[in-house]
Specification:
homodimer, 158 residues, alpha/beta, five-stranded mixed beta sheet, 5 helices
């Protein structure tokens, strides 16, 4: 497990937030992700479901695909995944399948979160891979970009 | 929900088994999947994790991507997903995200299955999409291709 200082954690979460801004610019749900190895980013992703018309194209999936390609390996040992919002069921499953040992996320997702909220897939003793999970880094920023997005969408619909 | 005859279900599961054979030919865990709309196949997939070096490249994910591309839509209403083995956590999450209403799988996966074995994600009342699930179609064929694969792999390692 990589030992990050609090400043380093905030730095990488800020990079994930920059990724979330890419979703926002395309009117997508603004979630961003970076995967870090030896304190360097090896994969970036942002939610692009509407743009690419792909149900699976969440921030974490895009970042895992990029990191797998970069490393030439489907396993991602000694990496840490930073994501602005708690991963969903699909992404939590994907994190385990990619053998990512460490996840740091910004804000909880009470409706869809699978890293503690609805499920606790990343820490399930029955699965063959368990993940160290930390939360709360730049929590307000990660939550507020989501709240603003949904507020604006509601106003638009009214 | 599509109303399939038993013969039709066996036909589409046989197509999924043909997909699983593609994995087997590349010495990958042999799981195959087809997605059907109006009784026509709109997406095929086979497990290709090792070949493509992508942790997420399970049969269901490959089939969902193909169906999304073909339909030009991340939503797949009025479709049925046939897969030889019970979907894992990631794939069960992906099936929900793609709004697939119907899943038919061959054999259970006691170790990783998330459609009844370890989890029951496809029928979770808390999530915003629920799926009609049926199992047991060509169960012996779907299970035996897996057993043969793992038996041969064990012998190879000894």
């Amino acid at each position: 497990m990589t030992d990050f200082t609090h400043k380093e954690k905030e730095y990488f979460m800020a990079q994930a937030l920059k990724e979330a801004q890419k979703s926002l610019a395309k009117e997508e749900i603004p979630i961003g992700c970076v995967i870090v190895k030896d304190k360097e980013i090896i994969g970036c992703g942002h939610n692009a479901r509407e743009e690419l018309n792909q149900a699976i194209m969440h921030a974490e999936i895009m970042a895992i695909e990029e990191a797998n390609t970069k490393m030439g390996n489907w396993r991602l040992p000694d990496t840490a995944l930073f994501v602005t919002i708690e991963p969903c069921v699909m992404c939590s499953g994907a994190i385990g399948l990619a053998r990512i040992p460490q996840v740091i996320y910004g804000a909880n997702n009470q409706k869809f979160g699978a890293a503690g909220s609805l499920y606790n897939i990343l820490r399930d003793e029955r699965l063959n891979h368990r993940v160290e999970v930390e939360t709360g880094i730049l929590k307000e920023d990660c939550a507020s970009i989501m709240k603003d997005f949904f507020r604006k969408r509601r106003i638009k619909k009214e």
